[in-house]
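hi! just following up on the protien thing from before. the input was this:
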Amino acid sequence: MRKKSLILIVMMIVFGSLSTINAQENKKSLIGDYLSISGWMNIQYDYERQLQNDDVTLDEINTLNVRRARLDIKGNINKHLEFRLQGDFAGSPKLVDGFVKIKLAKYFNIQAGQFKIPFTFENPQSPLTLEGIEYAQVISKLSGYSDISGVSTYSGGRDVGLMFYGNFFSFEKEGKEIPILTYKLGVFNGNGMNNKDANLGKDIAGSIEVCPGVKGLILAASYYDGNYYLNEGIVSEDNAERNRFTVGGKYEGDALVIRSEYISGKTDMSDDGLTSYTLNSDGFYVTAGYWFKYTCANSGLQHKIRPVARYDFFRSDVEDVNTNSTYYMVGVDWWPMQNLRLLVNYTLKDKVKNDNFGHLFQAQLSVKF
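and the predicted 3d structure came back as:
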């Protein structure tokens, strides 16, 4: 009943707002007046090598693949109503984003549909702006990519839900209005992308960002409180908890980017479907990059390039077994032209469970259209 009531409320809000807005404004009659269609692709090469502890078994990957192939449709029907439909055609076609925004005021707006949950700095960030090819370990494990709970093996940090967002207060810097306090608060199925809810509970996610008065500097905290269907045994469908919180800060200037977050979580797990235990996990990362811009003498094209680096740590408590994992990534992010990007990363993987280092080399070509 709660789920049906939530859907009915969302439909009433959306269609009620549409009726009101259409009655007030009928200035745009052609689709081309408010619709934009764009897309992008990631073509990727991966080489990874890891010798196992027996010094005999070698895990090795050497492959090319189309990582993403997105078609993105956005629309601003009027100043109050916005929508987005984004699909991915790499592998099995799927809906990535599908949502509407109802913009009511600077301090209160509504977003409904499927989109990235308001949790952490890095999760909402597009792969086209991310400094590295992969998200940090702790983001992947605790923010809905390859979640340690096993819910929706890969959901790209997205879920289906309803969110309220806005900002309060602001200051002006270099002719731009910068919000001091930004909030997001949402209720979600908790079962990942393109999935209905698997239990009777709903998950809550929220974030607060504060700009202390320096342009580009943001401090933030976010929280996720959820439960999920674990098994038919001792743990009931609403008692498997999945709770996480984050604190972090970032600075994004014209050239310099520095970002760091600490994330901690408690997740109910079961290995045999009969008994359960709580898995404590946490980790943090520090990412940095610096843009250099130059003009090619022959073509006159504007280029930008930045070296990037990341320290990336993750651990989980599995029956007192040390599972610490530390990744050291260095790379180059190069845009030879506005719509073309080449990203090259090398990652040294130090996992306690292995007595030797793992090596990962990746190159990714991205094109926007």
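Helices lie at 2-24, 137-142.
The radius of gyration is 22 Å.
cheers
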